Amino acid sequence: MKIKKMLVVLPAVFLTIIIGVVIFYNFSLSKVSNDDTLKKVVIEPGSIESIGKTLKDHNLIRDAKMFKVYVSLSGKTNLKAATYMLSENMGTREIVDILEKGESYNPDEVVLTFKEGINMRDVVSLISENTTNNEEDIYKLLDNKEYLISLIDEYWFLTDDIRNPDIYYSLEGYLFPATYDYINKNVDVKDIFKDMLDNMETKLEPYKEKIENSQYSIHEIMTIASLVESEGANVEDRKNIAGVFYNRLASHITLGSDVTTYYGLKVNMADRALTQSELAECNDYNTRCATFYGLPVSPISLPSIESIEAAIEPNEHNYLYFVADKNKKTYFTETIDEHTQKVQELKDNDMFYEHDE
Q1: Model's pTM, two decimal places?
Q2: CA 307 – CA 26 distance, rounded (Å)
Q3: Four-way CATH pick for 10-101: 3.30.1330.60, 3.30.160.20, 3.30.1490.480, 3.40.1400.10
């Protein structure tokens, strides 16, 4: 009798387990919520496990393990790396279909490309022209005390130096130049700045120990990097130029950098040449001013990783001077006489960039 009862009960138990597994499986693959708000999700090349983790972190799937099981059972393992617009009401099956097809197109997507060497005025213009943020509000945010303090608390490379009232734009030099894409033009400027700061943190992290052990502060290093970005045309020139700046600082010689003069006057170099009187005008940025020693009060542009590396690891040499010709070829010299001779040589060959009187 006991055996007969077991023969009757066991199939029922197995059936109950199977039904339970099926219900759990289907539930795990179902939509997370009814929210159809699209989220930007970057799927990097990697394993199914890493893709599942990314989707789970964005609350787009219920269970990363069941995601892996479904992908394996469905045979849809060729999931494509791309930037996707996904929502919580899609469910695992629909999301896998999208990732397999690589359907990442979003007609409302806004792509912002911040080029290396541009300054904060260019950044603000680009954001205001392509999003719903206006210039006035962006500049107000850059002056917002509470906002800046929150950023200093969040990012190790931001210090109270960015709150210096003499600085034109607080985050100048700390926003990493790259291409960033957003769901639509309603993106908050804080989110844009966060993406750029996060990117900068990633780029700086490998050099954190060197920066912390340097005799120069992170603010001074980033300032030098921004000068190098504006002065140097290639990697080797930038490392040599950084070396010149450090040599001049150590020798208590004014940097004499034209790019700081332009920035101090809020004039872009591409717009026009400066007059001799403008070159001599003193402010907290113009290192051409006869009485100016040391570095500008802040960075003057968005430096590339090459310029940042040059500021952290400059070439060691005895050069104190450099001059570039009209073709952006840079010449380095050790003495003022050599420098003067090189400048005259460039003038004689109509290769010297002259300023207006």
Answers
A1: 0.74
A2: 53
A3: 3.30.1490.480
